[in-house]
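Good day; I would like, with your permission, to put a structural problem before you. A protein sequence and the structure tokens that stand for its backbone fold form the material at issue. The record follows directly beneath this note:
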Amino acid sequence: MIPITALVHEVARVFGPKPAIISDRWTVTYAELDERVNRLANAFIELGVQHGDRCAVMATDSIEHIETALAICRAGAVYVPLNYRLRQDEVGYLLSDSDPVLLIVDSDYLDIATSVRKMVTSIKEVIEFGPGRTDVLSHDDVVNSGGTSYPTVVLHHDDVVQIQYSSGTTGLPKGAVLTHHTLSSRTAIGLVESGRFANDISFHNAPFFHVAGSQLDYSVLVRGGTVVRHRQFDAERAANALEELGVTSAFFVPSMINALLQVPGISERDFSSLRLIEYGAAPMPQAQLRSAIDVFGCSFVQLFGAGTEGGLQAVLPVEDHVVGGTEVQARRLSSIGRPTSFTEVRVVNEDGNAVAPGEIGEIISRGPANMREYWGKPEATSETLRNGWLHAGDMATVDEDGYLYLVDRKKDMIIRGGENIYPTEIELVLCEHSKVLEAAVIGVPDDHWGENVHAIVVVRPGETLSGEEVIEFCRQRLASYKKPAVVEFVDELPRNASGKILKRELRAPYWKEAGRSI
């Protein structure tokens, strides 16, 4: 398959003067984007970036970020997007793990970059999406310093092109290694399943540190469509863009859709240009989905993926989004759809055998969209990739017609507004508190976020502790979205005979009324 960055170059020859990206600051055409990517790639090479070197980016979503990601790839290097919500210690760990030669940041994160640069010796230069300062290069100056010709670097389909980090079940992040073939395959599968058109104007606000972030943009750019990007999601600004720019397709996580539905006067807006909304990355309550279908009056498609490791696995298509239909159609609104094209998907028991309809098993998948490995973690790789099959830990049932229904997560992951949160990481922090004896963290239903973080704490004998103290303790040590929303105090945690905490038992009271367990 042709590398994405090379394909964008070929598309630019055809759609040169057409807007490629409309941001909340400026607009760039295909011809301008391609030239800027060439300049950046050549400038990176002149700065000493070699084939296979990692280049980390910690920034919100912008034209500068998109062109940087494409340029890193065009230079033969490896793009490493970082979650800009992380704190200094968390960023330091990711950089120490990936050993980048360049660190590229928004101005808001320059202080963090300056601090971690002293600890990560591999970093040769810091580049700022801004004016540049002492010992920091300006992005615009770097763009202007590079030549306009297409770089002579030869890209191979099995070259590593991206390392996408997600939190691990141990609380330490793992980097999913993606090759050019992986990235191109994910883009192709997304195009087949999504129903996007070449003339689409597509609004995206999934951040680039998510696997869906840059992937969504690539799927539009390789077709000659127009991407609409805001640096960060704001419901009213997003509603304005949908209406005023004639947006034809969009992707939102359910919490974004919920926020849009709360915008005053949203039902009176003119969304006649909008024909398709894709959603995913978190559970969508049926009541919320029905309201969205009523307000936006367009088609809906649900996308389900295996996170950074496996790309798109299942799709609930337009024809299955039927409101007020039969009992079967109503039930399907709670499913994640059926397996995607070009990917083998099975639901298996502990012995690896396919489960019968209604039985719970683990979703496993095999195909070109799967990651190659975890960066520098062979044991974790062998645990997740077995005989070519990806075991991402999602538990589900399957019905007679092949529709998949999520019921639990083997690894207890919480998805809050599209953010993957792993309880073990939070539990380790909670247990650092001198007054905490032990703790468990679960995900509970939340009308806005889909799920939210709920901490259950046992206080040491003779000590007193408030929920506010616990939340503040976590806030100082974790990214804000990971801190508990609620802290519950109990005398003891339920355990099985081997001493393992029974999280299913802890979750049950909260999910009973939701009609599902995830």
